[in-house]
Design brief:
homodimer, 240 residues, mainly alpha, Arc Repressor Mutant, subunit A, Tetracycline Repressor, domain 2, 3 domains, two-stranded antiparallel ribbon, 11 helices, 64% helix, elongated
Chain lengths: 240, 240
């Protein structure tokens, strides 16, 4: 019955528009009573995004169960993967909803408010972890926003492929970018290399006398991100 | 008349709730006709955020007028400052609206959709600038989200001070953080220094034989961000 209510709702949202469709319309088309509807869904919105409340609760619990040894940026990336899993569990439904959300402004707005709640959950966790830092709140907000944007970039790639590409790989790639920029042992990707930029400096690397020491020689004018990239390569850290 | 309509609308939103207030209610309280209302505002939402459409248009024009020599991250930060200016021009109104938006979920949702449009405008510009880059779209989306989050972090600090702090300084500080992380010649701040971490490595710096060369010596196990910080200090770039 849950599925038939969702199907009826989607059909009406496309035909009549989201705002113009009432719960009465949905139950009439599905051939069930209003009470049945509200047994499954607290509101009209929840027919379209039936799993977000559960996923938000799961994310909150996941972050609450974090320990001090968890690297904070990695942890919020893992929390974002919980959202992806929800989408990837039901590709056909997720793709259908994505198309509907593009067409119906009311649903787009609802989705924005859901995304905002995920972002707040990530930011709250990071604010706690960064509470001793200068600008901890600012850093937390920026990283949470970056994680959500990267997640959504990967998710959209998958949805636009009609669920045919590898969702985990798409989102994993995007989140790796954020971890590279903000994680503790990673340098920023910096801007992608532009033509001619490489010749603007020379960087040489040379291992020192023992395994503990690395010497980096660089022209003073070299872009800092290129120096960092060179250090990263020398230290043998995978830039991806 | 515009001001009295805004005042009447705010009063009713607080008293009755946003969803429960109609345009008819607003014009009745303000003592004007419906046509007068719609001469000033296209919809009920626009009474609360009367300047966003104009600001979005201004931001779009500002970004469209960018040249190839504009550093992209700096440019989107400057675009974000246009939004701040709109808020800062009318502190009393901005603070009142901030309080109202916290109380009325419908307004919060409307605000999220406005913020999303600003973010899309920044992302579209960056996507264009990064079109030749690997992961250009991803980088554009992440930076746009980071800029918006930083701007809003600074803006909220100012609003929570009831407009008494320095809005330009608050937002400028937040945007400088984003430029430090993503700008072309800046290293990430990395995580703030934690107790004991400093002793985990030794870093020495020594100017080379001529002004072009910097030599950095570091233990292999040193956290990369500390190495970067040291390079930054050596090169004389202000970390703030």
């Amino acid at each position: 019955m849950r599925e038939s209510l969702v199907a009826a709702a989607f059909q009406l949202f496309v035909e009549r528009g989201y705002e113009q469709t009432t719960v009465d319309d949905i139950v009439a088309l599905a051939g069930v009573g209003r009470r049945s509807f509200f047994r499954y869904f607290p509101s009209k919105d929840d027919v379209v995004f039936p799993d977000h409340e559960g996923c938000l609760a799961e994310m909150t619990a996941f972050l609450r169960d974090s320990g001090p040894t968890h690297e904070p940026v990695e942890r919020v990336c893992d929390a974002a993967r919980l959202v992806l899993r929800m989408y990837a569990e039901n590709p056909a439904f997720s793709v259908q909803r994505y198309r509907l959300t593009r067409k119906v402004p009311g649903l787009r707005t609802y989705e924005l408010s859901v995304v905002w709640r995920y972002e707040r959950a990530l930011a709250e966790y990071l604010r706690g972890r960064f509470s001793g830092r200068r600008d901890g709140t600012l850093q937390a907000d920026v990283i949470a926003a970056a994680v959500v944007a990267a997640h959504n970039n990967g998710l959209r790639s998958w949805l636009r492929s009609d669920g045919r590409s590898d969702a985990t790989a798409e989102v994993g790639h995007a989140l790796a970018h954020v971890q590279r920029v903000f994680g503790p042992n990673h340098a920023p990707g910096g801007p992608a290399q532009e033509p001619g930029q490489e010749t603007a400096q020379e960087t040489g690397t040379e291992d020192g006398r023992d395994d503990d020491v690395v010497v980096v020689v660089s022209r003073r004018g070299a872009p800092l991100w290129r120096v960092v990239q060179e250090i990263e390569t020398t230290l043998g850290r995978d830039p991806d």
